[in-house]
Design a protein that fits this description.
Elements (H helix, E strand, L loop, with lengths): L1 H10 L15 H14 L4 H17 L4 H19 L8 H10 L8 H14 L10 H8 L8 E2 L2 E2 L3 H18 L11 H15 L2 E2 L4 H7 L3 H12 L1
Antiparallel strand pairs: 1-2, 1-3
Helix pairs in contact: 2-3, 2-4, 3-4, 4-6, 7-9, 8-9, 9-11
Family: Belongs to the cyclin family. Cyclin J subfamily.
GO molecular function: cyclin-dependent protein serine/threonine kinase regulator activity
Keywords: Cell cycle, Cell division, Cyclin
C-alpha cells in the first residue's frame, strides 16, 4: 500500500502529454514493435509499459527521423528493462539485433549509438525513470477485483479463484489496449488501471460493476471512470 501511495504521489508530477509529435501517425507501428520486442524478451508488463511511455514522451518533444525512432525504441526498451527487471533479464545487443532482423527493422544496432540514445533519454527525463504507468497499479487493484458478495449473471459466485483468473486476463487485455490509442494518455495511469478492472467486470457480467471496496482502494468513483471505460468498450 505504501508503494502505491508513492506511485500516486509521483503520478501528479508526470509531464503533460500534448500529442504534438510530427510522427504521431507512426506511433501505432512503434507501439506494436515495442510490444513484440518485450514479449520476445519476456519482459514484465511494467517494463513494457514504461518503454512505451518513455517513447511517447520523447516523440512528443522532438521531430525524429524514422531511423532514429527505431534506435530510440530499442533504447527505451533497454532503459525500461534496466529499471524494472533483474540484470539477467536485460536484453543483450546481439539479441536485440536478431529481433530487429526478425521484425524487418532496417537498422543495425551498435553499442555506441544505443548508449548515446540512452544518455539523451535520461537527460530528457532528468535522470528520473520513476514514472508510474497503469501497469504499476493493475495487480494492486486486481487483488480486490472480486468480492464474496459479487454476483455473476445475477447469481452468487461459486468459484472466486476461477472468476478472478478470467477477470485478470480481461484486465491485462484492456491494459495493453490502452496503449494503442494516445488519447488514453490524457487520463492518469491509476485511473486507467482502475478502468481496466471495471471494464473487465462489465464484460464478465459481474455486479455491481464497481464496488465500494474498489472505490475506496482506487479513490475513483464510477463517475470518474465512466469516460475511460466507454473508450475501452466502444
Amino acid at each position: 500500500m505504501l508503494e502505491e501511495s508513492v506511485w500516486m504521489a509521483e503520478e501528479l508530477k508526470l509531464p503533460m502529454y500534448k500529442a504534438h509529435s510530427p510522427q504521431i501517425g507512426m506511433r501505432r507501428y512503434f507501439i506494436d514493435l515495442l510490444t513484440v520486442l518485450s514479449n520476445h524478451c519476456n519482459l514484465c508488463p511494467m517494463a513494457r509499459h514504461l518503454a512505451i511511455y518513455l517513447l511517447d514522451l520523447f516523440m512528443d518533444r522532438y521531430d525524429i527521423t524514422v531511423k532514429q525512432l527505431h534506435i530510440t525504441s530499442f533504447a527505451c526498451l533497454l532503459l525500461a528493462s534496466k529499471f524494472e527487471e533483474k540484470e539477467d533479464k536485460v536484453p543483450k545487443l546481439e539479441h536485440l539485433n536478431n529481433l530487429a532482423y526478425m521484425c524487418n527493422v532496417n537498422v543495425v544496432l551498435n553499442k555506441k549509438d544505443l548508449l548515446r540514445m540512452e544518455m539523451l533519454l535520461l537527460e530528457n527525463f532528468n535522470w528520473n525513470l520513476y514514472l508510474p504507468t497503469p501497469a504499476h497499479y493493475i495487480d494492486y487493484y486486481l487483488y480486490v477485483s472480486i468480492g464474496e458478495n459479487d454476483l455473476h449473471n445475477g447469481w452468487p459466485i461459486t468459484s472466486l479463484t476461477k472468476i478472478k483468473d478470467f477477470l485478470e486476463k480481461y484486465a491485462y487485455y484492456f491494459l495493453d489496449f490502452s496503449v494503442q490509442d494516445h488519447t488514453f494518455l490524457h487520463f492518469r495511469p491509476s485511473l486507467i488501471a482502475a478502468a481496466c478492472v471495471c471494464a473487465s467486470r462489465i464484460c464478465m457480467q459481474i455486479s455491481p460493476a464497481w464496488t465500494t471496496q474498489l472505490e475506496l482502494l482506487t479513490c475513483y468513483s464510477w463517475e470518474h471512470l465512466a469516460q475511460c471505460i466507454e473508450m475501452m468498450l466502444m
